[in-house]
Automatic annotation (TrEMBL):
Residues 15-82 form the Putative Se/S carrier protein-like domain. This is Putative Se/S carrier protein-like domain-containing protein. InterPro entries: Se/S_carrier-like. It holds the Pfam family Se_S_carrier. It comes from Methylomusa anaerophila. It comes from the Bacteria.
């Protein structure tokens, strides 16, 4: 397993995970980085939630490992979204499709 690193911003991310609190997002990021999963933190997009918050982006293929780590570390995630890019009239547009919601909160 490679050493965990935060994203340089040039990688492609397919999944966005929102959390019950900023504290949980920070905890999740730390766990993922320690496990060697590339992750980037960002403010939660307004299209998803109007409240102040932080979410994480991970690549396709890393979601199963991420959720196993969250369960082991007792991380309270809220929702999982698939993120795709589409070409809009003014350029690329990010589309977020909710795939799963944590009903254990």
């Amino acid at each position: 397993m490679t050493a965990g690193v935060k994203s340089s911003g040039t990688e492609h991310y397919d999944w966005l995970i929102s959390f019950a609190s900023v504290h949980q997002a920070i905890k999740a990021e730390k766990i993922l980085v320690q496990a060697g999963i590339k992750v980037t933190a960002m403010p939660t997009p307004r299209e998803i939630d109007i409240s102040c918050g932080q979410c994480l982006l991970i690549a396709a293929g890393d979601e199963a490992a991420a959720f196993k780590l969250f369960a082991a570390g007792q991380v309270r995630w809220a929702k999982l979204y698939r993120r795709t890019l589409a070409q809009g009239p003014g350029g690329p547009v990010k589309i977020y499709e909710r795939v799963s919601e944590n009903t254990q909160l």
